[in-house]
Amino acid sequence: MEAFTTHTGIGVPLRQSNVDTDQIIPAVYLKRITRTGFEDALFAAWRKDESFILNQAPFKAGSVLVAGPDFGTGSSREHAVWALKDYGFKAVLSSRFADIFRGNSGKQGLLAAQVAQDDIELIWKVLENAPGTEVKVDLVSKTVECGNVVAPFEIDDYTRWRLLEGLDDIGLTLQHEEDITAYEATRPAFKPKTLPAKS
Amino acid sequence: MGKTLAEKVWDAHVVRKGEGEGANAQPDLLFIDLHLVHEVTSPQAFEGLRLAGRKLRRTDLTIATEDHNTPTLDIDKPIADLTSRTQIETLRANCKEFGVRLHSLGDKEQGIVHVVGPQLGLTQPGMTVVCGDSHTSTHGAFGALAMGIGTSEVEHVMATQTLSLKPFKTMAINVEGTLRPGVTAKDIILAVIAKIGTGGGQGYVLEYRGSAIRALSMDARMTICNMSIEAGARAGMVAPDQTTYDYMQGRPHAPEGADWDAAVEYWNTLHTDADATFDVEVDLDANTLEPFVTWGTNPGQGVSLSAKVPSPEDFGDENAKAAAERALQYMGLEAGTPMKDIRVDTVFLGSCTNSRIEDLRAAADIIRGREKDPEVRMLVVPGSARVRLEAEAEGLDKVFKDFGAEWRFAGCSMCLGMNPDQLEPGERCASTSNRNFEGRQGKGGRTHLVSPVVAAATAVRGTLSSPSDLEPASAGTLTEIAV
């Protein structure tokens, strides 16, 4: 995973709450077996509407999504994160993220920054009054800057550390393989096994 | 101090405690007892293993089934949609390469992953269960800690049989009282979501408690735990009891003999201690609950079936107001319209929420001896091939077919329309599934989430209806029963 320290890019105000992962990427695009190339699928239904924010210059070139509360609810599909990343987004700002979406973002190096709703409203105003304004997201100081707005954001320390270092999760866990093997030896005999198959 | 059920299961699976305390603590490394796999969220994970030269650590704790993409008609023919077929074939090749047990289309154990696990007896109390699907919360009905994970986590579990997780907070959902006739588990969970909101459970494990929950069957408890994710909670649980044990005993992978006794002894410890405290408690009165239905485009936008479509002005919060306006526009509804005046085009009985044998029985009981509204199309999709066989052995298929419903093969089907079962733009559906998101059941489709008995009554009347709205069933059927 690529390390993340700061990013500055055009902010996209998405004035909507409860943006579920079915909206971020409709199910029809989940049939692919690759991990990249999902940029066309991002907000596919909404992008058919010409007035949708990502169809307007300069937002089309945005890389920081500023959304309403409860972003990423619903399905666990990590494709939602892949689609945002493939389109070019580096960070999403919201006052509340769904747990699975936030977890998936952390694994893929997309920064899910939790910003108070009052600050989100201020940033929306700046971005709407002056489209194309850039948002600076600083993971070191845990702040976002947009026009004259400077706001703190929250992210758990472990995810922040992994993002800053660009660390691979599986590699980290396998450093403790002895602990896993030791745990396996203590599991009770009544726990089920899928093999051999019984029916 | 005592522990909650969720904390007990968590503590029993800690491989390695994260360093540090409180908010700054590193995650714990938890052992995973069962990993369920399906075709949609696994190909990139298998590919990741392959690229890194890693093995799948515990094939004996992993099982795969085909469900999201599978057609529910002509299952003996090659899948027509090429991308769907490729995804299924990729799962087959990956399972073969990595040694994973797979139940393919046509196999009698094939079906929706969350129906198959419990049915085989692989889901048991006190286990940790994961799957690359948010409705993994279903398995919490057995007192398991079960949660949906993303594809990166799927790969992590494949490689290590563990997951790094930060401890959750706990929320008790206390449901006391007795449900009235025609009111079901689905109505309980829709009412819970309407009460706490789609984000209300974020960061929590929910534990459903109280006399109304104790009185429910396992199928009904699964319906409730299934939709925990719709309240934002990654997991929901019910403490195991005699109902759980009775369901489990004799299932293919349930413990036997001395193992059964040892298991039951352990399972009996899996309840929240009297002196344990939850971070939050929510109460719901089962006595006054009515059939529930959604009017909007998220599962929290629901009301009693006897109520009217709400107005955006009813909502104090600006975001909720804007969301309601948008939802009404998408759903093509006017504020103030009685919910029961809303006409539907399609009724879908299926999905991991409501496709088990009891769901089919409950719906069949409503339609037996009645006629379907001729304008309404009804799809009945059993949750698994085994549920389908069981239903056919009871003659339920005949009840549905005589009524004019389509009797299909098992899969996720119209819950998310990854296969050909989709709504047309503007089409309206009463659905026993779990998500009424924009376009979920097909581009432009409009979804009202309901229970199986409301779905059945709606198919009779053509408008959203509860069983109590129906005229008595025809005399012909009564005679048949008498004979």
From TrEMBL, chain A:
Top-level EC class as recorded in UniProt: lyase
Superkingdom of origin: Bacteria
MF terms in GO: 3-isopropylmalate dehydratase activity
Protein name, per record: 3-isopropylmalate dehydratase small subunit
The keyword Amino-acid biosynthesis belongs to this UniProt entry's keyword annotation: yes
Keyword Lyase included in the entry's annotation: yes
Domain Aconitase A/isopropylmalate dehydratase small subunit swivel: 1-116
Cited NCBIfam families: leuD (TIGR00171), PRK01641.1 (NF002458)
Reported function: Catalyzes the isomerization between 2-isopropylmalate and 3-isopropylmalate, via the formation of 2-isopropylmaleate.
Catalysed reaction equations from the record: (2R,3S)-3-isopropylmalate = (2S)-2-isopropylmalate
CDD domains (UniProt xref): IPMI_Swivel
Protein family membership: Belongs to the LeuD family. LeuD type 1 subfamily.
Pathways per UniProt: Amino-acid biosynthesis; L-leucine biosynthesis; L-leucine from 3-methyl-2-oxobutanoate: step 2/4
Record keywords, A-Z: Amino-acid biosynthesis, Branched-chain amino acid biosynthesis, Leucine biosynthesis, Lyase
InterPro entries documented for this protein: 3-IsopropMal_deHydase_ssu, AconitaseA/IPMdHydase_ssu_swvl, IPMI_Swivel, LeuD
Assembly and interaction partners: Heterodimer of LeuC and LeuD.
UniProt xrefs under Pfam families: Aconitase_C
Documented EC number(s): 4.2.1.33
